[in-house]
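for the record, two folds in this file. i put them one after another cuz i was lazy. first one right below, seq on top, structure tokens after. the second one comes after a little note so u can tell where it starts
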Amino acid sequence: MKTLQNICLMTIALVALSSPRVYSQTADDAIRAFQKEDYKQAAIAFYNVLETTQNPSLVSEAQYGLAASFDKLNLNMAALKYYEDIAVVGSDHPYFDKAVEGLIGIAERVKDDFKIPAVIDALYDPNLSALEKLNSALLQRLHFVIGQHALNRGKIADALTFLNTVQDNNPRYPHAQYLLGLISLGVAQSDTAPNYVQAQKHFESVRNAINIRDDNKDRQDVRDLATLGLARSLYEQAYLLEDGDPKRDAWLGESIHLYKSIPRFSPAWSDSIFERAWAHTVANEYGNALGAIQSLESPYFTDSFYPEVRNLRAIIYYYNCQWDRVNTVIEQTKAELGPVVEQSEALLAQSLPYREWHGILEKSLMAAKKGQRVKGLIPDAIAYQIRADHKFQKMQRFLTELTREGEIFRKDPKLSSSRMGQEMFRFAADTKLAFLDVIGKYTYSRLKGLTGELSDITTRAALISLETKTAETEWLEQGRNIDGQIRKRLPRPFVPDETFQFWWFKGEHWIDELGYYAYTIKTECYE
């Protein structure tokens, strides 16, 4: 028994003496695999180190090595997990700076403005002295992340503080200037008047920082948004002035020019057509406004949702005393939007768990694509609008990334056969399940909000109808005809120059025509 006991003690001692060497050897193997760009093997090896050692130095090295390996493999959510583990430790972690840089890089790649910004915001104050020592370019990128996060939460003073630190030689400068332009316009500030001059300076800074021929899609999209913001600010300024004011005419003309300059088929294009329709209306260019509306109602913009154009069309006919056309548009608006509101309200009344709403949206979009009308789903027009929502798209990318990475960990022969791959598959699945509550809640809120907007539009349509009835009554009292005239074909609309060709619309929408439609409309108001 004594001999056996001595053997056991000797064995334990040998294990204790040899373990650090074994762990160190495993870490060295992981580093060599990483240096050879065998990132899958490196990730597996770094994971094994984490699983088998309590040596703080090796743990820190393995955490960063695993995160960096996942980063190299473009497994963003997996890298995020381990970068976050390092970052929450704080600046005492030897790889804190590199983890912060990794988090910022992932946030920029996947366009995440809710998960990673919240992590960085939470660690900023406790680690301020360490963060201020980061290189200037990285610190400014970090400030942009925090500034955008502050704006999303309505903390305008914090947003201004951080966004204004991003300098013009930083890649996030145009994005920061765009957000500063929105703040100057009073976005997310119900009690603040717009500062149009300041907003226009910020938007112009974006346009000057990004060449119109820049082949980076993200940067070009930001430039288009800045152009849209600049046009909008000029339109709003003009709207506040009296008809006939030279500044009003100049600002409207400039805003219309800017709306037209936004590239066709870009993400901002449909918004530019919609807002241009309003600018044309305010400028009394009713034929151009009706043409813009026709573009938005073409099959190409099925995914876009601009129900307010129905009321705008009615308003244009009202301004031109074409009462019969006003009434026709109003009746069509009620007939089209009424059932949509009823269907949405019935669905909202079911009080379903948030987790289920994303699935309902996907089923609704699939049914819409097949032309099916299925009870208990979101109406086509609202489903398309939710899908096109900027914030929803970011959430959808996050969810899609989790799905993609989960499938990689499940199917890749090398990763799936390792304990690391199996754990990361479970991590992706669990995170996705939890995130369905987040994206589901947003889907529900957008459905509720859009349903309310549609209800408001039908209410405004009723008010237009009431105004029309009042005008018709006045005409009848004066012995005028309210049933509409026999209308003849009017002369063709104005053709700007020889680079444009003209032909009558014959019921078919051609993609090359979109954005160029124009009507000739003659007022039927009496002097």
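(here's the note) second protein begins now
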Amino acid sequence: MARFSRTFWCDSAPGPGVRSEIGRRPVYGNSRSLRNGILLANRLGSRWRIVVGLILGAFALHPSGRAAERTRPNVIVLMADQWRAQAFGFAGDPNVRTPHFDQLAAESVWLKNAVSGLAVCSPTRASLMTGQRPLTHGVFLNDVPLNPEATTLAKVFRRAGYDTGIIGKWHIDGQGRSRFIPPERRQGFDFWRVQECTHDYTNSSYYGDGPERRMWPGYDAAAQTREACDYLRRAAARESKPFLLVLAWGPPHDPYFSAPERYRALYDAAKLRLRPNVPAGLGPATAKLLAGYYAHCTALDDCLGELRQTLKSTGQAANTLLVFSADHGDMLGSQGLYKKQKPYDESVRVPLLIHWPQGLGTRRRIRNAPINTEDLMPTLLGLCRLPIPPSVEGLDYSDYLAGGRNPGDDATVIQCVTPFGEWERRVGGREYRGLRTLRYSYVQDLQGPWLLFDNQTDPYQTNNLVNQPAHVRVQSRLKAQLSRKLQERNDQFRPGPEYLRQWSYAVDPNGTMPYGP
């Protein structure tokens, strides 16, 4: 009965011993017969509930029950580093060549307004793994550890009978960027081909099960993708359990000029069209960076093509839930700024494609709700009909993807808890809290309202409307909405040093957490 109560859900009032969760649908398999049995037992009384429960429990333990569980989808999470939402052919970028991603977008649900709520590497990865916000899990800057006892995506999938694996970048261990990470700090992943953090893409090391350092041959993203394809082939040969596989690439994060030469040859900086919000004086320098950035993007596009071909050739494409996103964007000269942490769209907006032929079809659908990083874990669990742990703070958008109700209010929070690194205080870095809605971006710093953009009429965010009389009503409404959201999450919006003291983080003069090799 323990197995039964963990696996199947009842849509109406449950009897004793039968778990229920409002709004959750049955798991895969012959769930209609099981549900009818539960409802019949509830009507007949407690003695018959025991009898029917034993029968259904035996059914769940029968090989046919295990086969039904096997029909749950495989899950692949592709995570790029610093790939902004705008830098794809399907998103309208006139320069970049991403035919495989364009094809994927044509067959997927595209969450067009997805954001990274704290646009920097480690916080996003920790929120992806836990479904929690940065001030809850404590990873609100790079190179600090996620609690090894956290309830994570991989732990939940593993408990549900999935094989779990990760390849590539980790960056939530916080014990040095190139040290061996023992199994007890792997957050539920069994298959392990990981380095904490590196951007030396042609001299890239990693660890497997043991502490012996290994090297990825050539360009690491390509080698990591080949490793992922081998994993898929082994999974297809086993045909025993579904899997959760995370493939976390390092590119297109800088250094921008380290993609293989054949990709760099595709882009002539002099011919690139820059975004209108790049200041004229930065044009040539920005174009040069963009050429290298786009080379990485096209290299990863070929990696996606290889991965999808392997899914097709192994017969796993139809029932594999493939999710693609990035940890944050890259300003790349827009607003005269570079890299991440900033509240502008080039920094906070990220790509998010969800592709699952068997469960969502292959017709392109655009969903506009501004989904945030902490929403990914509950949404994946919802799609796979797995229970969402009470520790999760994000929203489950699984029904919304298929055309159902939007669980949110079309506004999500963006923030910087404490600026550091390339956006240290000496170059304008500051704490902020803000909202990204369907139409507006509204941001406050510790002094009060800072930015207000109408992204519908001003998509490049060049006209700051904050404190302008004509927009005072909109600003007041957004300010109140932000205040409510911060109150709901118990975010008092204090100065960054207070959070550093709270979590006992000792940072260097530019706000960065020191890290070793």
